[in-house]
Structure formats: C-alpha cells, structure tokens
C-alpha cells in the first residue's frame, strides 16, 4: 500500500475543482421534460443547488448529493470538508437538513482502510454539528479516493429560495471570503505555509447554517452557494439567462488570509482557467480594477464556499440582524440591475 503518498496527490482537481466544465456538463445533461412531475418545485433547469419536491400544501423535501476527490491530505479533515460542502446545498435552498447518507469510493489495495474510517469519522463529526444523523451509505472499491454525502432536508414552501429569483435593485451579499481553490492548490503542490492551514480548514468546514435563517425572510429573493464554478459562474446562474445583470464592487469582496502569497507563486487551479473560458464573454471590467488579480480570484473554484444572497432594499436591516446573530460582519458587494450588454460589470 502507498501509505506515504499524500491524499491530495490522488486528485486531478481537489474538492469542487473536480467538477466537469460548465460547457461540457451542459452537453452531458441534455434536456429532460420534467414538467410532467407536477410536485417537482425545483429541478435542474436553472442549475440550482438541490432538487425540491412538494410533500403537501405547506411543506417540501430537499434532496441533494455532492462528492469529490481529496482536497487536503488529512483524512479526517477531508471527510469534514466534503460533508460540510454537501450539507450546504440544503441551507442554500433556505431549508433544514434532516439526514445524510455517505458516498465512499476507496482504493483498498493502495490506501489503508483505516484512512477511509477517518474520512467517515470526519463526515460524521460535521453531520453531528449540523444536528443530523449519518444514517447509512454506499461504498465501492475504486481507483481513487472519493467521499461525499447525499443529504435530505425539509422546508416550508414559503421559505424556498431559488438561485434565479433575484430582481433588479436587489443588493448582493457573499458570506465567505474567496480564494480557497488557490490555497488548496498550494497544499497539493506542497507549498502552503503552516500558519495558513488552520484558517483554511476553518472556512472549508464552516456550515452555512445562516441559510436556514435567511430562508424565513421574504425579502431574501434568491440564494445559492459558491462552489466549483467559482463566484462568477454561480453569480451568472443567478442572472437567469440575461433577465437581469449585476454590478460588483471588487474591493468589497473579502479574500482568504494568505491569498496574496499564493497569487505571487501562481498556485492557480486548472479549473480557474476552465471557468474563466466559460464565462469571460459575459464579464466587463471597469477602470481601477486589479484585473490580473480578479482573473484568478473571481473564477477560483470554491469548496463549501459562501452563500450568494439577493436582498431587496426593504429587508436590508432585517438581514443585517440575522448576519449579526451568526457573527457575520457583512456589507453588500454589489447590486442587481436591469439587463445590460454584459451580465456582470466589475468595478473597483
């Protein structure tokens, strides 16, 4: 067994950087006539975070799955990150998770099963933090280590938050700093400084519980979490095919601790360039923006990234109170506008 080999070296792209490119994914998924399923409230037509199905007049069930290759070398931390990332999809819909089951692929002839046990223990610890059981799962003997969860959640229909329901005039918030794809690439290349590891893991394992609280606010019009397609990709999904546009204030976007060091070292994930190639035609930069930095940060693939939230003007005070209760010091990073030539305008 290759006991000395670091887990991250098994990954072509760690964490949500494993995602298939947006253009190829669209070709794979194709089209499906979901209109026959009258109880389906959210399907795959807007690339939302989870599927939602009506249970009765008032309530609905949320179903999602997410899994990936190792993003860090520590098995327990890998399990924690993958679990937090999967559960985030339920919070992004405004819902409450109630149960998870595990998805585990492990090369048992190459890596000790003891490390797989540590991965599961990490996943279980995050499920416990979310107040849900890791109730079962499925395992296979695979060529590469893979872990994630399938998560079930519930919500009241009136609290459902889709990713594509923002309106012109809504203010945009982001609940976590950007840049984790760059720092996890530094792990893979063996250059991450010791002092940057704990802040990175803290962010990667932080649950987006604020989403369930925001779901109860009517003036929160749309919500999604930022993952493998980067900030730009998930923002563009919110713009609903050009129905609206957005203006972003780049300097108001928070970046993860240590980011400048790794930008200088060019520890940029391959998925960043894939994302930029998919979305660049929809983006315009205005004077004063550090464009070379923004090229690397805005399409950076996030894992268990923050929530992108569209809030109408009348609800800003109420939302600020929710943020305060979760120890989140946030201000708007942009605003949604009527449709313009480009989907996203980035200002300083």
Structural class: alpha+beta
Tally of distinct domains:
2
What are the secondary-structure elements, in order, as H or E?
HEEEHEHEEEHHHEHEHHEHEHEE
The proportion of residues forming helix, as a percent range, comes to 25-40%
Per DSSP E runs of 2 or more residues, the count of β-strands stands at 13
Q: Give the C-level CATH assignment of the largest domain.
A: Alpha Beta
β-strand percent reads 15-25%
Q: Tell me the strand order in the biggest sheet.
A: 8-11-7-12-9-13-10
Q: State the separation between the terminal residues, measured CA to CA.
A: 51 Å
Give a quick account of the main beta sheet: strands, pairing sense, barrel closure: 7 strands, mixed
Average pLDDT metric: 93
Measured on Cα atoms, how large is the radius of gyration?
Answer: 19 Å
Structural features, described:
This protein is an alpha+beta fold. The chain folds into 2 domains: 7-159, 60s Ribosomal Protein L30, Chain: A, CATH 3.30.1330.10; 171-347, PurM-like C-terminal domain (Phosphoribosyl-aminoimidazole Synthetase, Chain A, domain 2). Helices cover 32% and strands 22% of the residues. It contains 11 helices and 13 strands. It has a 7-stranded mixed sheet. Strand 1 and strand 2 (51-54) form a beta hairpin. Helix 2 runs parallel beside helix 3 and helix 7 runs parallel beside helix 9 (270-279).
């Amino acid at each position: 067994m290759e006991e000395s080999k670091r887990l991250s070296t098994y990954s072509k792209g760690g964490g949500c950087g494993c995602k298939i490119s947006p253009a190829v994914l669209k070709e794979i998924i194709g089209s499906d006539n979901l209109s026959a399923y009258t109880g389906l409230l959210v399907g795959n037509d807007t690339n939302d975070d989870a599927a939602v199905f009506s249970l009765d007049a008032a309530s609905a069930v949320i179903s999602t799955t997410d899994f990936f290759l190792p993003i860090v070398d520590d098995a327990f931390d890998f399990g924690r990150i993958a679990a937090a990332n999967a559960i985030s999809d339920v919070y992004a819909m405004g819902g409450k998770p109630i149960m998870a089951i595990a998805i585990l692929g492990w090369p048992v002839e190459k890596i000790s099963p003891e490390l797989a046990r540590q991965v599961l223990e990490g996943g279980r610890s995050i499920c416990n933090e979310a107040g849900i059981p890791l109730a079962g799962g499925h395992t296979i003997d695979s060529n590469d280590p893979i872990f994630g969860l399938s998560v079930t959640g519930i919500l009241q229909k009136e609290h459902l938050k889709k990713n594509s329901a923002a309106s012109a005039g809504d203010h945009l918030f982001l609940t976590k700093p950007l840049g984790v794809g760059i720092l996890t690439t530094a792990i893979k290349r063996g250059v991450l400084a010791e002092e940057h590891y704990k802040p990175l893991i803290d962010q990667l394992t932080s649950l987006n519980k604020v989403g369930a609280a925001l779901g109860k606010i009517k003036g929160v019009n749309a919500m999604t979490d930022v993952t493998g397609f980067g900030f730009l990709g998930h923002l563009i999904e919110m713009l609903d095919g050009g129905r609206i546009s957005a203006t972003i204030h780049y300097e108001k976007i928070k970046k993860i601790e240590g980011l400048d060091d790794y930008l200088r070292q060019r520890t940029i994930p391959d998925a960043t360039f894939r994302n930029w190639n998919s979305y660049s035609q929809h983006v315009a930069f205005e004077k004063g923006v550090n464009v070379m930095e923004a090229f690397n940060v805005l399409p950076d693939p996030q894992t268990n990234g923050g929530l992108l939230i569209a809030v109408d003007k009348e609800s800003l005070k109420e939302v600020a109170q929710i943020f305060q209760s979760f120890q989140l010091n946030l201000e708007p990073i942009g605003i949604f506008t009527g449709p313009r030539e480009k989907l996203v305008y980035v200002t300083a």
